[in-house]
């Protein structure tokens, strides 16, 4: 017998609204600004290395990304990067922090439908102010029973959140576009994990699809989520 789902956690970036596309656009601008010093592929590689190296100190989000771009620019130019380029990178970061919210298809309908029957919690990483701004602009804020902006998404963290907002991880589901952050640690905590892939996913979020896990599900988009939850009830 399966206990039914009472609480649903939603990831935000690239699950409810577009996010990675703004990082990709800024990366392309970064490559253009540094074109005379390095090839794009080399730049992207160095930037990803810097992001990975800095994650433990900067955490996830736009501000850490900008600092990693500046660090990479200094490295690849042997400390000769013009201050006009640094200025452009700072400006690019500020534009990212102001980008308008674009909800993904079916996000509003799925959240509205499930908010009527379940406790729903937004669980996201990233810069606190930026995530609060995006949630406010999304128009979805009122629908959530709880909002958790966390420094990282781990199994103990999911256990704690679903314990506090619901009936524990065993009766919870986490929905998101990242196997590494949304799905696998939620499964490890004992919850259902629903993978909704997005065609752009950050290199540091990749992981293998879980094989034959009884609580793992994959959906092409959020339109199918209320039905899936209904089938598990
Ligand atoms: Mg995401």
TrEMBL record:
The protein's name: Hydrolase of the HAD superfamily
InterPro entries the UniProt entry points to: HAD-like_sf (IPR036412), HAD_sf (IPR023214), PGP-like_dom2 (IPR023198), S-2-haloacid_dehalogenase (IPR051540)
Protein's organism: Rhodovulum iodosum
Keyword NAD found: no
Keyword Zinc set for record: no
Family annotation (SUPFAM superfamilies): HAD-like (SSF56784)
Keywords attached to this entry: Hydrolase
PANTHER family for this protein: HAD FAMILY HYDROLASE, HYDROLASE, HALOACID DELAHOGENASE-RELATED
One GO MF term: hydrolase activity
Matching Gene3D superfamilies: HAD superfamily/HAD-like, Putative phosphatase, domain 2
CDD domains, alphabetized: HAD-like
Lineage: Bacteria, Pseudomonadati, Pseudomonadota, Alphaproteobacteria, Rhodobacterales
């Amino acid at each position: 017998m399966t206990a039914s789902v009472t609480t649903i956690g939603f990831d935000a970036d690239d699950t409810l609204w577009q996010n990675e596309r703004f990082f990709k656009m800024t990366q392309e601008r970064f490559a253009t600004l540094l074109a005379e010093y390095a090839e794009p592929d080399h730049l992207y590689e160095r930037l990803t290395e810097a992001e990975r190296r800095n994650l433990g100190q900067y955490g996830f989000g736009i501000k850490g990304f900008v600092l990693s771009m500046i660090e990479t620019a200094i490295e690849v130019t042997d400390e000769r990067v013009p201050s006009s380029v640094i200025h452009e990178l700072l400006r690019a970061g500020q534009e990212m922090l102001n980008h308008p919210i674009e909800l993904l298809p079916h996000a509003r309908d799925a959240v509205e439908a499930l908010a009527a029957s379940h406790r729903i919690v937004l669980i996201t990483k990233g810069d606190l102010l930026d995530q609060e701004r995006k949630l406010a602009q999304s128009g979805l804020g009122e629908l959530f029973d709880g909002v958790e902006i966390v420094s990282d998404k781990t199994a103990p963290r999911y256990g704690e959140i679903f314990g506090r907002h619901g009936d524990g991880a065993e009766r919870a589901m986490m929905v998101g576009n990242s196997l590494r952050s949304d799905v696998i640690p939620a499964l490890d905590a004992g919850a259902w994990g629903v993978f909704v892939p997005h065609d752009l996913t950050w290199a540091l979020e990749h992981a293998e699809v879980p094989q034959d896990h009884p609580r793992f599900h994959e959906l092409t988009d959020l339109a199918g989520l209320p039905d899936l939850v209904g089938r598990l009830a």
